Every structure is written in structure tokens, then in C-alpha cells.
Amino acid sequence: MDTRTSIARTTCKGRHSKSMNYDKLLQSVKKHEGFRDVVYRDTLNKRTVGFGHLCVEDHWEDGKKYDKEYLEEILEKDLQSAVNQTHEMCKDLKISDDAKTVICEQIFQLGGRGVSKFRKMWAALREDPPNYFEAHVQMLDSRWAKQTPARATEMAEQMQNAG
């Protein structure tokens, strides 16, 4: 295990949980994002590279082939950012590690701001006990589910079974 993975695994620990399953999260993100070593346009026509990294920085060149090891480092940083946002957004929730893992992947894909707009999903997760079924319903009743239906369906099913 390299240092980056070790750091990310360590920070996957949360207040109400032992830890999110980092390896499961990493594999799921890789499966859903796929990999391209050149800049491409995603389903929303945004410049993207590697494992779903949005090219917001200026240094990405169209047509240039990037080293997979470098792009995996970018993935680790992006995933660490998603983990940090997950902890912040879930800090007052008493939800399972599996639910946090689903939310973390949503944040990886949509960003924290995008996931915060799932108001009814969050309301279901604030219930005592958390209403994972309703959270899954709300995940599927979204523009996200229409844009990436296979991924959204799989992740919503994971949320439904998170309790």
C-alpha cells in the first residue's frame, strides 16, 4: 500500500463509524468513471481526463497522452476531497458506513454542492432511524438519475440496502 492510499484510508474514518470502505469506494469510482489517458468530453460535454477528473486547471492539453500513474495520483486527490466533504456533510447524521460510501461517490461525481441539492434524500437520512428506502427513492427522482441511469440505479440500490 502506498502513502497516498494509506492517508486516504486513515481519513475515511468518521465520527459515527469505524471507517468507510475505501477500497470498495475506489473500485466503484474506477468502474463507473472508466479511464482515458487523454482529455475527453464527458456526458455533459465537460473536458475530463483520467478517472473522471474535471479539467478545471489550465495545464491539460487536448490530444496529449498522460501517464496512468500521474492520473491515479489525481484520482487519489479527487477522492480525498470527496471523502473530506462527505465527513463534513454527514457529521451530524447517524448513517451507516455503506450510506456514507454511496454519498462519497455521489460527491466525487457531482461535487458537494450538487449532492447538497438532494434535499429530500438528506431529510430521509436525518430521520431516526435513517430512512434508506426513501433516500434511494429520492436519488432516483433526479436529473442525475436521468443523466447516468445505470450508475444512479446501482448506487440507489446500495443506499436502499445500507441499513
Structure keywords:
7% strand, 8 helices, mainly alpha, Lysozyme, single chain, 163 residues
Please summarize what this structure is:
By secondary structure, the protein is mainly alpha-helical. It has helices at 3-11, 22-33, 68-90, 97-116, 119-126, 132-140, 143-147, 149-160, and strands spanning 36-41, 47-50, 53-54.
Instruction: Name the shape in a single word.
Output: elongated
Computed CA radius of gyration, to the nearest angstrom: 16 Å
List the helices and strands in order. Answer: HHEEEHHHHHH
Roughly how many Å apart are the termini? 30 Å
CATH topology: Lysozyme
The assigned CATH architecture is: Orthogonal Bundle
Task: Please indicate the count of domains.
Answer: 1
| Category by helix and strand content | mainly alpha
Give the averaged pLDDT, no decimals.
90
Tell me the fraction of residues in β-strands, as a range. Answer: 5-15%
Total helical segments: 8
What's the total number of strands? 3
What is the level 1 CATH name?
A: Mainly Alpha
Q: What's the arrangement of strands in the largest beta sheet?
A: 1-2-3
Report the biggest beta sheet as strand number plus sense, adding barrel if it closes: 3 strands, antiparallel
Low-confidence stretches: 1-18
